[in-house]
Amino acid sequence: MLPDTTLDILETTRKVFSEPDFTTDLSEHGQIVQIQFSPFEWSQDLILIGFERKILLARLDLSDNIDVKILTEFVHPCRCTTLSFSPETSLTGLPSQLIFAAGGTDFKLRIYSSDLLENNTCKVLSSHTSYINDSVFDAENNYLASTSDDNTVKVWVTDALKLKSTFNLSSPGISVCWHRSDSFKLLVAEKIGIIRFYNVDTEVPILSLDHCKPLSSCHWAPSDRDLVASLQLGELLIWELTKPCLPLHNNILFPENGGNLKFSPQGELIAAVNSLDGSLKIVHIKSQAVKLTSGITLPTNVCWHYRYPLVCIGDDTKLCFWKVSAK
C-alpha cells in the first residue's frame, strides 16, 4: 500500500499532460514496437524503428523543426525486441556504412550491414535460448553484448562476431550498458533486482548493487560514469557508484511495475515510460522534480537524441517527440 502523500503526488502529475511537440504517422508500416537513436556523434541524427516484420532507418532534420525522413527499410522475420547501432555506422563518407543489431522473438540476434545501395548482409547469432531483452555495442567497437530471459549475458567480438564470453545470471537479464569512457566495463541488470558490473577482458565481476526489488530497466549515465538509474517496482532509483551501498535518490514514479528509462545526453534528466500506467515522465535528477508528464497509449522504449534534449517514443503507429529543458 502506497502512502497517501505518494498517491497525491502521482495523482497531481497525471493531471498536467504535455502533448508531443511533434509526431510522425507511420501507420502504413504497422505498430511500432522498438526504437533506437544512434548514441554516437557521427551518426547522431539516425534512428531505427522496429515493427512486427520490418525495420526502418530514418534521419532527423532538426534545422527548423523536426522532420523525419525514411531512408530505407530492412526485412526482419519476426517482432523486434531490441535494436542497437554500431559505432562504425556513418553516412557522411562514400560508401555509406550502416551496421546495427536486432533481437527478435525467435531468440536470434541479427547483425545487419548495408551501404544503403546494393550491398546488404545479415549475420544471424543463435546462442540465446529465450527472448533477447537488450543488446548494445561498445563505443570502441570491440564488443557487442546481449542479454536474455535465458539468464545469460553473451559478449561477442565484433570483428568476426564470435562469442567471447557467457556470463550466467541468477534471473533473466533485462539491461546491458557500456560506458563511453570505459569500453571494458559492462553493466548488467537482472530482473531479480541485482545490477552487476563486469570487466569483460578478465571476465570478472567488479561491483554489484541490490535494492531487493524486481527491476524492469537500468541505464548508465553517458555523461557521468558514477551515476546509474534503475526502475524497480515503479520506483526510480539513482545510484552513485562511489557510494554503492544505498541509492542516492529514490522516487516512486509509477503505481505499476514495469517500464523503461534513459538518462538524457547531459545527464541532468531521466525519461521513464510505463505502459500499464500509460504515461511518460521526465524527472530532474538532482531535485527529483517531475518536469514533464504525458499520456501514452501503447509506448515502446524511450530514447534521447545524442546531443539535444529531445525525447522520442513510439506510441502505437506514431513516432512522438518532446523538447525538454532541464531548467
Give a description of the structure:
With 327 residues, the chain is mostly beta strands. It has a domain at 1-30 and 211-327: 7 Propeller (Methylamine Dehydrogenase, Chain H), CATH 2.130.10. It has one helix spanning 4-15; strands at 22-25, 34-37, 46-50, 54-61, 67-75, 80-85, 98-104, 109-114, 120-125, 132-137, 143-148, 152-157, 162-168, 173-179, 182-190, 194-199, 204-210, 215-220, 227-232, 235-240, 249-252, 260-263, 269-274, 279-284, 290-295, 299-304, 310-315, 318-323. The strands form 7 sheets. Strands 1-28-27-26 form a 4-stranded antiparallel beta sheet, with no helix packed on it. A 4-stranded antiparallel beta sheet has the order 2-3-4-5, with no helix packed on it. The radius of gyration is 19 Å and the shape is globular. The protein starts with a helix and ends with a strand.
